[in-house]
UniProtKB/TrEMBL annotation:
Protein name per the record: Chromosome partitioning ATPase, Mrp family, contains Fe-S cluster
Alphabetized UniProt keyword annotations: ATP-binding, Nucleotide-binding
InterPro entries associated with the record: Bact_polysacc_biosynth/exp, P-loop_NTPase, Wzc-like_C
One Gene Ontology cellular component annotation held by this UniProt entry: plasma membrane
Stored Gene3D superfamilies: P-loop containing nucleotide triphosphate hydrolases
Domain of life: Bacteria
SUPFAM superfamilies named in the record: P-loop containing nucleoside triphosphate hydrolases (SSF52540)
Example GO molecular function: protein tyrosine kinase activity
Source species of the chain: Aquimonas voraii
Length: 242
């Protein structure tokens, strides 16, 4: 595959980011309903918490481009909430483009949170070869400077897809070589499948999300033992609403 073809999807993603500026952004009520932080929300504490997490991760990465895995200890720990809001907080910086990738192939949900049609081309379509151009699965959203690669059709047997050469090509192409690109992977639970372990070997950094008062210390330690420890940036405790 030529070098020119490899960088082409990144250019398309950046063009999508510019086009996304023409989309009407979510208003305050829409953001609240979707539990997405914004830089101008009345209660700044949630946004500040994600700003702090963003700053720590970017410092750990050296301030450049970043591919980040957000993975829950168990189903219901709240990793999708953290992934979406971390992407939003990273995109507060107008120089940065964030590409959010839904890797939860068994139970995808990010397309609903971002108001994307259920039949939009997604990750599975590219990994299974139905879509050849990566830019076809990268969609603008109503969150400024945040793009989404939805999961696409549900798949129970997801390990072979996520561990494939096409998945590595996708991540390398999205991250690219230009400055200001962050790729955030929303992963399935460590306890549910080997998918999280596979993905942790591909991302530069990983954040483990534990449900505060929900996931036991033993479960957290077991999840840590499964992930690539060199790339594990830390554990984020999320207060899961009841």
């Amino acid at each position: 595959m030529s070098k020119r073809h490899e960088v082409e999807p990144l250019r398309a993603a950046q063009a999508l980011a510019q086009r996304a500026g023409a989309l009407a952004p979510f208003n305050g009520k829409q953001l609240e309903a979707r539990r997405i932080v914004s830089h101008d929300m009345p209660d700044s504490r949630p946004a500040d918490a994600f700003r702090d997490l963003r700053t720590q991760l970017l410092a750990r990465a050296g301030g450049g481009n970043l591919s980040l895995l957000v993975v829950p200890v168990a189903h219901g720990s709240g990793a999708s909430f953290v992934a979406v809001n971390l992407a939003s907080a990273m995109a507060f910086d107008e120089r940065r483009t964030v590409i959010l990738v839904d890797c939860c192939l068994r139970s995808p949900q990010l397309h609903r949170r971002m108001d994307l049609p259920a039949d939009a081309f997604g990750l599975v379509d590219f990994l299974e070869g139905r879509v050849e151009r990566i830019e076809q699965v990268v969609h603008p959203t109503a969150v400024p400077r945040v793009l989404l690669v939805p999961a696409g059709p549900r798949r129970e047997a997801s390990g072979d897809l996520l561990g494939s050469a096409r998945m590595r090509l996708l991540l390398d192409s999205l991250r690219g070589t230009d400055e200001g690109v962050c790729v955030v992977l929303d992963a399935p639970a460590v306890a549910a499948s080997p998918d999280a372990r596979i993905l942790s070997s591909m991302a530069e950094l990983s954040v483990l999300v534990a449900g505060y008062g929900r996931d036991t210390p033993a479960a957290v330690q077991e999840a840590i033992s499964v992930l690539d420890r060199v790339r594990l940036a830390g554990v984020a405790f999320n207060r899961v609403p009841h």
